[in-house]
Amino acid sequence: MSTLNLLVAVCTAYVFFLFFVAFAADRLALQGKKAWLRSPLIYTLSLSIYCTAWTFYGAVGSAARNGFEYLTIYLGPTIVMVSWWWLLRKLIRIGRTQKITSIADLISSRYGKSSLLAAGVTILAVIGTTPYIALQLQSVTLSFSVFAAQSDGLAAQDQARVALWLSLGLAVFTVLFGTRNLDAKERHDGVVMAIAVEAVVKLVALLSVGIFVVWGVSGGLTEALNRIDASEFGEWHTDRSRWAGLIFLSAAAFLCLPRTFQVLVVENDDESHLRTASWAFPLYLCLISLFVVPIAVVGLDIMPDGSNPDLFVLTIPLALGENGLAMLSFLGGFSSATSMVIVAAIALSTMVSNHIVMPIWLQLRPSGASVSGDVRAAVLMARRISIVGVVMLGYLYFRLSSGGEALASIGLVAFCGLAQVLPAMLGGMFWRGATRMGAFAGLTAGFAIWLYTLYLPSFGVGTILPVAIIDNGLFGLAWLKPDALFGIEGMDQLMHALLWSMLFNVVAFVGVSLVTFPSPLERLQAAQFVNIFEHSTNARSWSGGTAQTEDLMVMAQRILGAGEAQALFLRHARRQGARGNLPAPTPDFLEALERELGSSVGAATAHAMVGQITGGMAISVEDLMAVADETAQMLEYSARLKEQSEELSRTALELRNANQKLTRLSIQKDAFLSQISHELRTPMTSIRAFSEILRDTDQMTPNDQSRYASIIHDEAQRLTRLLDDLLDLSVVENGQVNLNLREGSLRDALDRAVSAAAIGEDGVQMAIERDMGREYIVLHTDLDRLSQVFINLIANARKYCDAQTPRLVIRVMQETDRVVIDFHDNGSGIAPDAVDMIFEKFARVSDQKAGGAGLGLAICRQVMTRLGGSVDYVPSSRGATFRVVLPYRIALAAQ
Amino acid sequence: MKRETDRPGSPTVFHERRTYRRRRVMDAARVAPILALILWSVPLIWPQTGDGTVSSATALIYIFAVWGGVILLTWGLSRLLADEVDEPPDTET
Predict the structure, then answer these.
(1) Nearest residue on chain B to A232, judged by CA atoms?
(2) B57 interaction partners in chain A (CB closer than 8 Å)
(3) Closest-CA distance of chain B to residue A40, Å
(4) Fewest CB within a 10 Å sphere: which of A1, A280, A378, A531?
(5) Histidine kinase domain: which residues (chain A) (predicted)?
(6) Residue of B31, B37, B38, B53 for testing the chain A interface, max A β-carbons within 10 Å
(7) Confidence of residue A506 (pLDDT cuts 50, 70, 90)
(8) In a 10 Å sphere around its CB, with 0-12 CB exposed, 13-18 middle and 19+ buried, how is residue A197 labelled?
(9) CB contact under 8 A, B59 and A236
(10) CA–CA dist A685, A689 (Å, integer)
């Protein structure tokens, strides 16, 4: 049996073994024996999907060409794993809570379930992953040809056939074990188990070759190290920018590659597994890369010049006649390649079917998800076709690129492309202000620059990008040369592309996020993602509740399968306490249902499907406005209540004021009565006393008689005057007075008043100054009453003015709407504390000059009020000023 | 990060110290990747030519020694943080 035939036999046996492992794992999972299947160890080993054939073979090749640079590819993921506490734990919690099915789903879900973003990331992933799959096919065919070279060689035609059979086999495996069930939450136990086994094979193979090389060939560790120092490696010569840049790039890729995201987040069964993986996976990476340099050094030493260093892992054992070891090594490489293709195909098919095929399919069915068609079958079919499509795309790429050197460099090119998702991803996890437009702008900018500066040139000069563009730049602009943007020449092409694409990506992402405003759903999701540890419940609430549960049931059965859907509905019905088997379409239930569906078909699609049935699209602005309306109504109602209560308290206050006023009036009345009785009693007492004297005294001189009689007369007069005043006041106050309105001039009224009041009883004439010319104003008013007011004021001035030569100035001022008459004397005025009182009844400024009852000014005020004017005391620097104001209205009416 | 408030009635001194320790372990878990990054950035300052260039064997030993240290550190931290992470009680610890 030739080596090649043996190889094919071993290969087939190995594949059957993998089938068996996957099948057995699936069976065990069905029986519920998941404990061992889902151990932290299996999770850690499944992460090794990161190490593909490119790393298995390529690491040695890279070490032989570029020295230690290959290490960066493992250092990045190690740092990411060490960051498990603040980074991966959050990512996985988000993935589990939000039922994330892929990296595209994560981005879409975070940014308001944007279908556009999901499709964009999916396309990016497909573009970035297809060459990578081609790379795996190439590595397997290359390793085949190495064995074939031992016998009769492998024609190019046969190489292509190997690749074709391999891709077909992988597609079948992936379809079989990758689409057994739809719910991504149940995960692909068989696939994960197979990958874990392959991870062990990879590691054992590489370690075996390494141990063989170090102890078998070099003769011990010290000798191996000496050999390294003596070799071309010699000293540390690693490009610094590449060292730093590649660590970043591999870290980013570890997070963003669809296949690593699949095993890291989607297939994660238990967050605590991460705890083990945090140190175990770095250990795995460390062991994988441990013997790479010794192998490369020995290979460079013993292999003939011109042999491909990428295949040293295989060719060294073969050259040294260790066929068994070579076979193991081949299986290691085979494992790396197959596991990568399988998981990449699963991850990509999930993305393609959920974010490209299903949305289009739903769009093409105007009848909606619930009416016709078996969605479950459609989703599964879409996924199977996607798997075959993705693998075949890889095969096609392999054939077209004819597996040259160009393919070998595609690994890092793909890393760089997928790293463009990193800003949107991390931004979405840690920054609430990141918006969909920002993510879209960042992705677009980064993707475009990556495409132009790295991806398209990677096909070789003149393949896709014309030579003219590479030499002279786009549109002939030198600063747009794909390898020297903005005129910065001499950079490593990969670092150049990484720098500019990430720079523009981040700037566009942050800048656009800062200036755009997220939709309500986006903001809810942002809060959910960023504060995932604070609230792990789902905030995407459904409003309305018009959904028909039967319709939802029909749809859920199609996607989840009858048994599971019924179990789900029953569970929620029990939880709601419903009598039947169907729960009410409460927002809680709809949310849970959407999550379940989302884990099968992706969040955006599930959202759209439930939306089609419920008739509402999540929380729309309208919903929020409805909520706001309700709130507004509540506010209005409470405002009205508040108003009413304010009115009540106002009324109460008014009542209280009225009551106080009444009480005050009552007190005033009492005071008035006591005052009036006092005022009446004083003259009455003297009248009685003197009249008694007159009656009882016999011998009385006529002189005395007349004196006493005149006292009695005076007092009686005073009494009469008082009573007149009182009557007058009460008449005026009660509004019972009849105004005798007639026309007359103000001068006449003043003349009369002056002649009546200017000369007092003591005969002292008061000097009065008047400006006759200004006094000629015709009034239509009660002139008698007006004169009474003037008399009162003049008399008061005469009585109370304490100047040596009392003078009174009467000044008349005609204003636009009123006539103002000031009575200003040159006395000392009225004491400030007495000003308040002078218009009150019985108020007298001083007792010694008590001429009247103190009712004069009170009457004046009442009269003026009746006439529509006023009389006030105007404080002035010297003398007292009383101001009478007559509204011009009345004066006008007179003219 | 602030410590949890004292719960009256509980053995506060012990409780405080434990909580405090756990917070510091979390801090350590946060800075561990930075430490790894810094240590692996050291080769950036190694001279590329002339005197003092680092031999490949030394470089290899340095990088893998850091690697081993990082793995041990992460292992230790992950054990200390077991209570914080495990949703269902972990059978391992």
Answers:
(1) B56
(2) 225-226, 228-229
(3) 10
(4) A1
(5) 675-890
(6) B37
(7) very high
(8) buried
(9) yes
(10) 6
Q: Where are the domains of chain A?
A: 3-403, 420-539, 540-617, 623-732, 737-894
**Considering only CB atoms, which chain B residues are within 8 Å of A238?**
43
E strand residue ranges, A237-294: none
Query: Comparing C-alpha atoms, which of A263, A262, A276, A345 is closest to residue A46?
Result: A263
What type of residue sits at position A758?
A
Is residue A844 predicted with pLDDT exceeding 70? no
Measured between its terminal Cα atoms, the distance across chain A in Å is 142
User: Count of alpha carbons within 13 Å of A552, Cβ hemisphere only?
Assistant: 29
Mean pLDDT over A140-167 rounds to 73
3-class DSSP state of A842: coil
pLDDT of residue A372: 43
Tokens in use for A677? Answer: 């009785």
Q: Which residues of B touch A (CB under 8 A)?
A: 26, 29-30, 32-33, 36-37, 40-41, 43-44, 46, 48, 53-57, 59-61, 63-64, 67-68, 70-75, 77-78, 81-82, 85-88, 90, 92
Contact A236 B46 (CB under 8 A): yes
Least Cα separation, residue A154 to chain B (angstroms): 38
- Yes or no: domain A623-732 corresponds to CATH 1.10.287.130: yes
The 10s digit of each residue's pLDDT in B22-47 is 888 888 888 888 988 888 888 888 77
Of B30, B57, B68, Cβ closest to residue A85: B30
Q: Do B88 and A290 make contact, defined as CB atoms within 8 angstroms?
A: no
Is residue A432 classed as helix, strand or coil in its secondary structure? coil
Q: How far is CA A695 from the centre of its chain?
A: 106
Residue pair A125/A134 in contact (Cβ under 8 Å)? The answer is no
Q: Are A817 and A885 in contact (CB under 8 A)?
A: no
DSSP A611: H
Q: Are A229 and A360 in contact (CB under 8 A)?
A: no
More confident residue, B71 or A520: B71
Give CA torsion, residues A605, A608, A614, A620, to 10 deg: 130
Distance CA A701, CA A72 (A): 145
Cα–Cα separations (whole angstroms), residue A135 to A292, A314, A404, A408: 20, 17, 10, 7
CATH architecture of A3-403: Up-down Bundle (1.20)
ipTM above 0.90, yes or no: no
Residues in chain A: 895
Averaged pLDDT, A825-847: 73
Chain A interface test: which of B67, B83, B91, B93 (most A C-beta within 10 Å): B67
Q: Least CB-CB distance to A228: which of B56, B70, B71?
A: B56
| CATH of span A737-894 | 3.30.565.10
Average pLDDT score, chain A: 78
Structure tokens of A444?
A: 């677009």
Distance CA A373, CA A437 (A): 35
Closest-CA distance of chain A to residue B3, Å: 17
Identify the weakest region by mean pLDDT among A375-384, A554-563, A802-811: A554-563
- Domain residues of chain B, as ranges? 12-46+53-85
A313 touches A57 (CB < 8 A)? yes
Rounded distance, CA A333 to CA A231, Å?
Answer: 26
Q: Do A275 and B78 touch (CB under 8 A)?
A: yes
3-state secondary structure of A548: coil
Q: Minimum mean pLDDT among A425-434, A692-701, A882-891: which range?
A: A882-891
Closest CA to A532 of A445, A622, A429: A429
Say whether pLDDT at A40 is over 70.
Answer: yes
CA distance A740 to A341: 117
- Cβ neighbourhood burial of A405 (10 Å; 0-12, 13-18, 19+): exposed
